[in-house]
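Example 321, ligand iron/sulfur cluster.
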Amino acid sequence: MAKPKVAFYWNASCGGCEEAVIDLAEDILMVADAVEIVLWPVALDFKRKDVEALKDGEIAVAFLNGAIRTSEQEDWSKLLRKKSGLIVAFGSCAHLGGIPGLANFSDRAGVFDAAYLSAVSNDNPDGVTPQTETKVPEGELELPEVWDTVHALDQVIDVDYYLPGCAPPPDLILDAIKAILAGELPPKGSVLAPDKSLCDTCDRNDSKPDKIELSELKRPHETFMDPEKCFLAEGVICMGPATRSGCGERCINANMPCRGCFGPTREVKDQGAKMLSALASLLDIEDPEQMEKIADSIPDLAGLSYMYSLPSSLLTRKQKR
Ligand code: SF4
Ligand code: SF4
């Protein structure tokens, strides 16, 4: 019997999600035995024409990681949507926009300025920035167009399932692959991770006092972080109350607060707003000036609260490209 065809593709991301597939270790042999991989640019030499030659829907499932910020990424995502029965948004950037999505606090001109013009490490006297067409003696070079706005995958194509995390942990990846192979999937649109908050599964939850009243916030390097105690109770921002569980408390176990890469649980519409509201309820401060001072003590509170979720938050913008 023919094996189900599977594709992996990489849009705007760091490559960590590709590592996560390799992290399946010996289980990757089980996967390789059970499926036929027809696209995996980071590991195998398939070309676009190989995918174009497949029938529509012929790929059983395509795992797409990364946000969408260029015309080429949109184009590939649409091609894979057409050729695939199921699309899984793989990892935080495809799921919610992720770290690349923080660029939505600026726009293309701002990003180009920071990356190519004003960074102190740049040596770019002619102020060259990426162009879609560039004439060189050998001919004309083409680059994809970079958009003003970074998108989560489901803002560009229809997505069937979401595997959260930066990167998704191997046990969740394997569970998802097994469920797909067995045809035992939850309803379309599900996030393939528990629908509980990280605080619900965190061992440090028991150390939380009944009422937390904070008068200052501290950054991780500014304090001793007791490995037994809840970060929030110690005045260190931890995104646990606004974040879905399922990662195995990876950061907490390394004595670092959660930064929210699993995104919110189902009922939360905006992870950053949820976190800010949780934080505000813990601050024992009435005076607006003191409140401002405490907010200023965290250098980028908006960036911290929306670290992984800005493109899919309620802070959307009219500019779609
Ligand atoms: S706030 Fe962080 S450390 Fe505290 S219980 Fe929640 S996840 Fe654990
Ligand atoms: S603790 Fe938070 S930031 Fe760290 S892996 Fe888990 S969900 Fe992601």
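Summary: The radius of gyration is 22 Å.
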